[in-house]
Amino acid sequence: MIHKKVGANLFAQNTLNMRINSHLQILSLFMLMLLAGCSGSVTEPVSYFAVETPRPFGYVIGDEIAQRIVIETRPGITLQTASLPARGQINRWLNLTQINVEQQGEQTVINLRYQIFYAPLEVKMLSLPGFTLQFAQGDNVLSKDVPDWSFTVAPLRELAVRKNEQHEYMRPDVRPPLLSDSAALMGLWSSCSVSVLLGTYLAYLYGYFPQSRRRVFKQALKQLAKLSEGDMAQALTIAHKAFNKLNRQPLFQHQLTDFYRQHSEYQRINKSLEWFFDYSYHYFFSGKQAVTPQHLEKIRELLEQCRKIERGAL
């Protein structure tokens, strides 16, 4: 009996120890996972980092290469822009021509543009130099490396011109296609047509066309310019002929009302016309009308007003 009790106690003690060890293992595993999570949140300030580049081949002298760096950090961590490479010459064959930093939501995007000036004799592999970005978290400074990026650059043409049996191996450059000039020609013809129409209209207004009634008073003024007060009869006749030609029949003072119905623009100088016909009537039929230089000047002014009306300037 004593041996059986001792064995039972030993079995119970071993079972209890196994259960305790199992619980301790589970607790240890949980603590390790918790520590791993905490350590990752402390040591990983940059939650996302990507360097986006174009094709790594097919470049020649003078080409530009755009590089885009996308960064996402935890709150409270800021990029130190002083850690970015300086704009200008990087080395003897590479220039950094553009730097642009912009915030897109929670991500910081750095756009870099390089220009290469390497003239290789054959296809050669080159590299955009890497650099180290720095981030500030309070008084702490954190770093993230941007790796080098390799690409190939090729010569523009061969050093020597090779020939085959028929002709030169290197062919001349393809001639550029000619641009269509139909739109320009259409615009030119339209402009010329409009110019001709405007010129024709102005010539009509100024009375440059033969038999144009818009030259009636222009010709009368030209004839009147050669006369003096001693030629008053001729001056009055010239003026009457101009009015008759415009009216297409003899015009008398009592017909002015009908004349204005057809040529309403002349009604604005009605007083001058009334004076003219009254003066002409007394000059030719009473024989007692005085003749002075002022009378001739008034006739000239009347014809000048008529000239402005026929040109559309009054």
Topology:
Elements: H1 2-43, E1 46-52, E2 64-73, E3 78-79, E4 88-91, E5 94-104, E6 107-116, E7 124-128, E8 131-137, E9 140-146, E10 149-153, H2 182-205, H3 216-224, H4 232-247, H5 256-262, H6 270-286, H7 293-311
Antiparallel strand pairs: 1-2, 2-6, 3-8, 4-5, 5-6, 7-10, 8-9
Helix pairs in contact: 3-4, 3-7
Describe this structure in words.
With 314 residues, this protein is an alpha+beta fold. Among the domains are: 48-153, Immunoglobulin-like (Sandwich), CATH 2.60.40; 204-311. The protein has seven helices and ten strands. It has helices spanning 2-43, 182-205, 216-224, 232-247, 256-262, 270-286, 293-311; strands at residues 46-52, 64-73, 78-79, 88-91, 94-104, 107-116, 124-128, 131-137, 140-146, 149-153. It has a five-stranded antiparallel β-sheet with strand order 1-2-6-5-4, with no helix packed on it. Strand 8 (131-137) and strand 9 (140-146) form a beta hairpin. Helix 3 runs antiparallel to helix 4 (232-247) and helix 3 packs antiparallel against helix 7. Residues 1-6 have low confidence and may be disordered.
Give the SSE order as H and E letters.
HEEEEEEEEEEHHHHHH
- What is the general shape? elongated
The number of helical segments is: 7
Distance between the termini: 147 Å
Number of strands: 10
Strand content: 15-25%
Spatial strand order of the main sheet:
1-2-6-5-4
The helix/strand class is alpha+beta
Rg, please? 52 Å
Major sheet attributes:
5 strands, antiparallel
> Whole-number average pLDDT?
82
Helix content: 40-55%
Spans where pLDDT lies below 50 across 5 or more residues: 1-6
